[in-house]
Amino acid sequence: MSEASVHAAGEQHLVHRTGWLRAAVLGANDGIISVSSLIVGVAAAPGATAGTVLLAGIAALVGGALSMAAGEYVSVSSQADTERADLAREAAELVRAPLAETRELAAIYEARGVDAGLARRVAEQMMAHDALGAHRRDELGLADDGGSDPLQAALFSAGAFASGAILPVLAALSPRGMVLYAVPGTALLLLAVLGALGARAGGAPIGRGAIRVVLLGALAMGVTALIGTLTGNIV
């Protein structure tokens, strides 16, 4: 094998990380911001007790993680159902009209810049090797690995949320007068670290990734603190 072939075989791109990276960052960010905001909103109410604040944080962590898991499970299951239906339809078309499907595959390659004659030969070879696999990849745009497992995706999403939420909940154990400082401080520090790590893993500027998520988190906590203060005064 040539040196170029070895390099190509071992080449890795940042785009390959975007699937799991996006899910992990979104889950953890959601856990940090939503749970911290709820804790701060409750703690800002004048009549809130330490037990009430902590209970709100725990409830937000558990409810949020379960909600993320349920949403991810339903989403991935629905996507898998759609993909299976498309593949079944494509398999039937391959049996019913293989020549038309070959022309369709050749047209796809030609539209991507392949010469018409070469596109036809490639399509014929792909159809002979793995017709359904070729249409799965090139017509439907589906991965060969069959996509994500719904249960695995649900557990991963719940775990990402809980991992982001747990430290703000622990910060809520601070003395009552310190909660409004400990929880936002913990949350903003976590958001900065997470934003920087996500940006670094994705090849984006670290400073920009950290600043934007910190600003959004601060805004969310500021709004909920204001709501908690106003609501507590009214009640």
Report on the structure:
With 235 residues, this protein is mainly α. The chain contains eight helices and no strands. The chain has helices at residues 3-10, 18-44, 50-96, 98-111, 116-138, 150-171, 179-202, 206-234. Mean pLDDT is 82; it is low at 1-10 and 13-18. The chain has one domain (17-234). α2 (18-44) packs parallel to α8, α3 crosses α4 and α7 packs antiparallel against α8 (206-234).
Gross geometry: elongated
Strand content: under 5%
Low-confidence stretches: 1-10, 13-18
What's the mean pLDDT score? 82
Percent of residues in helical segments? over 70%
Based on CA atoms alone, the radius of gyration comes out at 25 Å
What distance separates the N and C termini?
A: 76 Å
Q: What's the domain count?
A: 1
Structural class determined from secondary elements:
mainly alpha
**Series of H and E elements:** HHHHHHHH
Number of strands: 0
Largest sheet: none
User: Number of helix segments?
Assistant: 8
Short note summarizing the structure:
The chain has 235 residues and is mainly alpha-helical. It has helices at 3-10, 18-44, 50-96, 98-111, 116-138, 150-171, 179-202, 206-234.
List the helices and strands and how they pair.
Elements: H1 3-10, H2 18-44, H3 50-96, H4 98-111, H5 116-138, H6 150-171, H7 179-202, H8 206-234
Helix pairs in contact: 2-3, 2-6, 2-7, 2-8, 3-4, 3-5, 3-6, 4-5, 6-7, 7-8
Sum up the structure in keywords.
mainly alpha; elongated; 8 helices; disordered N terminus; 0% strand; 235 residues
